[in-house]
């Protein structure tokens, strides 16, 4: 929409007094109000306060006017100097009262227009702030979405690696059993201690039958993941590289012990 059309359409819309609306204040609940909004809010507050003061002053002046008019009427027939002076003073005060009433009525006619102008400026400043916030939040939400997507992919890769390690442990232990026999294996088990065939969480946290069933369901939920966006060949290659590195380290350690 063109700027001119936008301004024209906006001019025809009736806008409620924003500073009297609690929901308007809630727009700034998280980040606080920017300086421009604070200044316009203070200006509008002063205008509303001034409008209330003028209305009260007009009410008081009209009462004074009525009393002065009554006093003038009652002293019209007087002939003494004292009555004449009182009449002149009342007439002078009555004229001053009428002038103040007229001035206040003129100001009171103009204040609503001023309030509306400031209120529209406040609306534009508020909308600028809100749309900037919406854009910032959208950008951050997109960044967080990408982060979540990346973490999910890494989680899936690590689930595959975890299963590979568990499968490899089971294969090694099975081959050891077939090659060396259970009796030898039992002796070495007692000697070497810390290793586990299966999930390490099972060993760290022994569970009852019910807890075991719950854990199995949880494992299924974690491991039953969609493998989309994962390069399985790359994961397998990384796994082989990890195993090769571990083998090299083991051989190096054995060589050092020999030396």
Your description of this structure?
This protein has 259 residues and is mainly α. It has helices at residues 3-11, 22-26, 35-75, 81-180, 182-192, 200-204, 209-223, 232-258. It folds into two domains: 3-147; 153-258, no CATH class. The relative contact order is 0.06. Mean pLDDT is 78; it is low at 203-212 and 217-225.
What is this structure, in a nutshell?
The protein is mostly helical and about 260 residues long. It contains eight helices and no strands.
Topology:
Layout: H1 3-11, H2 22-26, H3 35-75, H4 81-180, H5 182-192, H6 200-204, H7 209-223, H8 232-258
Helix pairs in contact: 3-4, 4-5, 4-8
Helix content: over 70%
Q: Number of helical segments? A: 8
Class of secondary structure makeup? mainly alpha
Main sheet makeup: none
What's the gyration radius in Å? 43 Å
Secondary-structure element series: HHHHHHHH
The parts where pLDDT drops under 50 for at least 5 residues are 203-212, 217-225
Gross morphology is: rod-shaped
């Amino acid at each position: 929409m063109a700027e001119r059309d936008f301004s024209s359409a906006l001019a025809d819309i009736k806008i409620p007094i924003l500073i009297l609306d609690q929901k308007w204040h809630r727009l700034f609940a998280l980040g606080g109000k920017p300086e421009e909004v604070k200044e316009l809010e203070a200006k509008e507050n002063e205008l509303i306060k001034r409008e209330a003061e003028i209305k009260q002053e007009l009410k008081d002046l009209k009462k004074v006017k009525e009393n002065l008019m009554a006093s003038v009427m009652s002293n019209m027939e007087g002939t003494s100097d004292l009555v004449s002076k009182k009449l002149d003073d009342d007439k002078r005060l009555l004229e001053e009262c009428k002038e103040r009433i007229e001035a206040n009525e003129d100001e009171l006619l103009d204040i609503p227009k001023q309030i509306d102008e400031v209120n529209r400026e406040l609306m534009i400043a508020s909308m600028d702030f809100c749309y900037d916030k919406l854009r910032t939040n959208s950008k951050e939400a997109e960044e967080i979405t990408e982060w979540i997507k990346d973490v999910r992919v890494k989680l899936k890769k690590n689930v595959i690696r975890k299963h590979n390690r568990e499968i490899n442990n089971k294969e090694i232990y099975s081959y050891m059993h077939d090659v060396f026999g259970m009796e030898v294996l039992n002796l070495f088990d007692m000697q070497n201690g810390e290793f586990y065939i299966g999930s390490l969480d099972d060993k760290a946290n022994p569970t009852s039958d019910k807890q075991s069933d719950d854990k199995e369901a949880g494992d299924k939920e974690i491991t039953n993941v969609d493998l989309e966006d994962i390069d399985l060949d790359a994961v397998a290659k990384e796994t082989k590289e990890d195993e090769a590195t571990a083998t090299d380290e083991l051989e190096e350690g054995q060589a050092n012990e020999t030396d």
